[in-house]
C-alpha cells in the first residue's frame, strides 16, 4: 500500500512538472466562443419590461394585468416562417424517407454500396446504406455499427444506419434506374385510382418526422428516475393542412388558396399557415438538427436549440423596446400620419382589403419594429411555447416567466392576423388555440437562446 501511495505521488509530481499551468488552478481551456447570428434572425437584447395591457381592458378579458418581468437575450426570426422555408423542411423529410426506403430495399435484396463505382444512381444498390461495408471503417464507427447501428432498436431495426446522400435522387420517371427503384418511388405517391387529370402527387400522409427530446421540466421536478424515463419520442405528420382555407370559412370560395398557397412559388415569401403547434415544435427540432449536422461536419461547437418563443419573450420582442405601447410601433392608432394602415388586419367590418391586402402578405411587409422584426402585429397570429392559463400573470415567475404544461392543450397565440380586428393586434392581447389545431391565420417564428448574459436591452439605464 505504501508503494502504491509513493508511486501515485511520484506520478503526480512528474505530471505537474511537465504541465503548462505551473500547478495553478487556471481552468480548462477550450475553443473561444464567437456568437454567430443565425441567418434571417436578429438579436433581441434581454431586459425588463412591463408585460400585459397597460391601457384600458375594453374587452374586459381580465387575463393580462400589468407585471414587470425580465427575459434573457435571444435571437428571433425577423419574419414569420415562410412557405419557401417550410418547403425546405418538407423536401428534406421527403428525400430522407425516400432514401431510407431505397436503402432498406437494397438491404433486403442483399445489395451493397460500391464506393468505387463510377456509375452513380445506376441501380438501387447505389442507394444502399453506406455503412454496410465495415472494412474501411474507423475503430469507433465499427464499434458503433457492431453494437448499435447493425442491430437497431426495438421500434426501428434501421436506427442509426447511415444513408447515402451523395447520389442524387431521380424524380423523372424516365430516369428510374431499375424496377426496384420504381417500386420504392411508386410507394411514395397516392394510388393511381385517387389521381385525376393525369396529376399524381406525393402522398403527404407518409411525410413524417421522427425526433426525440428530453423533458427537462419533468426531470428537474422528479425526485427519482433514470434519464431515459424523461426522453420523449415524437412522430409528426409535417405537411401543412391546406384544407384550412376551406374549413375555416363556411359558405366561402377559397379554393385557389387551398390549391396553390403552400406549394406555388408565387407564395414562396408568404407566411406558412395550416401548421399546428405540434408541427411547429417538430420544425424547431429539425432546424436544430439540420444546423448542427453542418457544424458537426465542420468540427464546430453545436449551437443552442431553435424553439418557439415563450409568451413573455414574444411580447417583449413585439414591443421593440417601447414601454407600455399599444402596438409594436407604439400606438395607439393602427394608421400613420398619412392615413396608411401599419399592419395587415381587418380594419372595417366585412372589408378585408381596406389595408391593401385580402389574405396574407409577404412576410417582410410593412415597417419592422425597433428590433427589426416584421409583422409582429397582423398578417398571421403566431404560436408560442406557452400554455394558456387565464390567471397565469398572477403566479408566473418574474424571471423568464412561462407556463409549460404538457397536459394543457391550449397554447398561446399572439399578434393577431389578417382576418382579425385591431384589438388582437395589440402587443398585450392574449389568445389561444388548441395544440393539435391548424388554421389559415396562424403561423409561427422561431427563436434561439443567446449564449451568454452580457447583452441586455436596458444595461445603460
What can you tell me about this protein's structure?
GO terms for molecular function: formylglycine-generating oxidase activity. This is Gliding motility lipoprotein GldK. Pfam families: FGE-sulfatase (PF03781). Keywords: Lipoprotein. The protein folds into two domains: 32-82 and 238-461, Alpha-Beta Complex (paralog of FGE (formylglycine-generating enzyme)); 90-206, no CATH class. The strands form four sheets. It has a four-stranded antiparallel sheet with strand order 1-4-12-7. Strands 10-9-8-11 form a four-stranded mixed sheet. The longest helix has 26 residues, at 83-108. It is α+β, with helices and mostly antiparallel strands. It has helices spanning 2-17, 83-108, 139-149, 179-186, 216-221, 244-247, 255-260, 277-297, 311-319, 392-395; strands at residues 41-44, 47-51, 67-71, 74-77, 208-214, 231-237, 306-307, 381-387, 410-414, 431-434, 442-443, 447-449. α2 (83-108) crosses α4. It is globular.
